[in-house]
C-alpha cells in the first residue's frame, strides 16, 4: 500500500507552505492553501483514511463542490511546521453529496479543523472552476509584504493597482494579463469576504485584500505560488522606486500593447488607459 505522506499532493503542500514561509509571507499561522483533488488522486490512499471521519457543517451550501476532495492547511497552524508533521497541520476533506458540509477523511490528527478562510476558498474554487473549465485547482492566500505595503499608498482600484504592478516588471503583463482585483477592507474569515473575493475571481486570478494580503489561484501549487511571487516582486520594486522619489521613466502604454501582442495575451482594458 502506498504511503499517503509520500503522495504528490502531501509533498506538494509541504513544499508550497515551506516556500511561502521562507518568503516571509506566512508569519505564525498567517496564510492558507487548498488544493482540489480528484477521485483518482486519492484512490490509492483510501486505506489511510480515518475510520470515523469528523463532519463539519459548511457555513454556506457549496453544492457545486459536492463529492470533491480538498487538501487544506489547518486553522491556527504554522506553515513552518507543515513539513515537520503534515498529518497534524494538513487535512484531506471530502464534501458531502449535497454540499452542506465535509468529512475530514485524513490528517488534522490532533483535532484541528481547516483554515478559518475555508469558506472564502470554497467560493473562489467554485468561480475558478467555472471560468477555467475546471483547470484551476489551487487557492492560495498569504500576507505578501510589499503588496500589503502598497495598499496603504496606491488607489484601491483594480485598474490603478494593476497598471502600477505591470510597469515595474516586463513579465507582469504576460504572467497576469487579467490584472489584480481589489476589495475594500473586510473582516476576514467571513462568508461576506469569501463571496466578494469570488466575484473578483471571475475576472482576475489575483485578488488583493487591502492591509491584509492576497488571494491567488492556479492549476497547480507552483502556478499559484509563481503568480503571487511575480506580483510581489513587482510590488517590491515599486516600493523601492517610491522610496527613491518615484518614477522618472517607465513602461509606456504602447510598450504594454506591444508586449501583449508579442506574447499573445489580452490585457485588462482598464489598466491600459
Features:
273 residues, alpha+beta, L-fuculose-1-phosphate Aldolase, nine-stranded mixed sheet, elongated
Rg value: 19 Å
Shape descriptor: elongated
Sheet/helix structural class: alpha+beta
> What is the CATH top level name of the largest domain?
Alpha Beta
CATH architecture label of the largest domain: 3-Layer(aba) Sandwich
Main β-sheet, in a few words? 9 strands, mixed
Indicate the low-confidence ranges by residue numbers: none
Helix-strand topology string: HEHEEHEEHEHHHEHEEHH
CATH topology annotation of the largest domain: L-fuculose-1-phosphate Aldolase
Q: What does the average pLDDT come to? A: 97
Distance between the termini: 58 Å
Q: How many separate domains? A: 2
Task: Report the total helices.
Answer: 10
The helix content is 25-40%
Q: CATH homologous superfamily of the largest domain - what is it?
A: Class II aldolase/adducin N-terminal domain
Percent strand equals: 15-25%
In total, the number of strands is 9
Strand order of the largest sheet: 2-5-4-3-1-6-9-8-7
Amino acid at each position: 500500500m502506498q504511503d499517503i505522506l509520500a503522495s504528490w499532493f502531501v509533498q506538494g503542500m509541504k513544499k508550497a507552505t515551506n516556500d511561502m514561509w521562507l518568503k516571509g509571507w506566512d508569519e505564525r499561522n498567517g496564510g492558507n492553501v487548498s488544493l482540489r483533488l480528484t477521485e483518482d488522486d486519492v484512490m490509492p490512499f483510501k486505506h489511510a483514511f480515518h475510520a470515523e471521519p469528523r463532519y463539519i457543517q459548511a457555513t454556506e451550501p457549496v453544492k457545486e463542490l459536492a463529492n470533491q476532495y480538498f487538501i487544506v492547511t489547518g486553522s491556527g497552524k504554522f506553515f513552518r511546521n507543515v513539513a515537520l508533521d503534515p498529518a497534524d497541520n494538513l487535512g484531506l476533506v471530502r464534501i458531502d453529496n449535497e454540499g452542506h458540509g465535509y468529512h475530514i477523511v485524513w490528517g488534522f490528527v490532533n483535532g484541528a479543523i481547516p483554515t478559518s478562510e475555508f469558506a472564502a476558498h470554497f467560493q473562489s474554487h467554485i468561480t475558478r472552476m467555472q471560468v477555467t473549465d475546471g483547470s484551476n485547482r489551487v487557492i492560495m492566500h498569504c500576507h505578501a509584504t510589499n503588496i500589503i505595503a502598497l495598499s496603504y499608498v496606491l488607489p484601491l482600484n483594480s485598474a490603478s493597482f494593476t497598471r502600477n504592478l505591470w510597469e515595474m516588471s516586463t513579465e507582469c503583463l504576460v504572467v497576469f494579463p487579467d490584472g489584480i482585483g481589489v476589495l475594500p477592507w473586510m473582516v476576514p474569515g467571513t462568508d461576506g469576504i469569501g463571496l466578494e473575493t469570488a466575484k473578483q475571481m471571475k475576472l482576475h486570478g489575483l485578488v488583493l485584500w487591502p492591509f491584509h494580503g492576497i488571494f491567488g489561484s492556479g492549476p497547480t501549487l507552483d502556478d499559484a505560488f509563481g503568480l503571487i511571487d511575480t506580483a510581489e516582486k513587482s510590488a517590491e520594486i515599486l516600493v523601492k522606486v517610491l522610496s527613491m522619489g518615484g518614477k522618472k521613466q517607465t513602461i509606456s502604454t504602447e510598450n504594454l500593447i506591444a508586449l501583449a501582442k508579442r506574447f499573445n495575451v489580452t490585457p485588462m482594458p482598464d489598466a491600459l488607459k
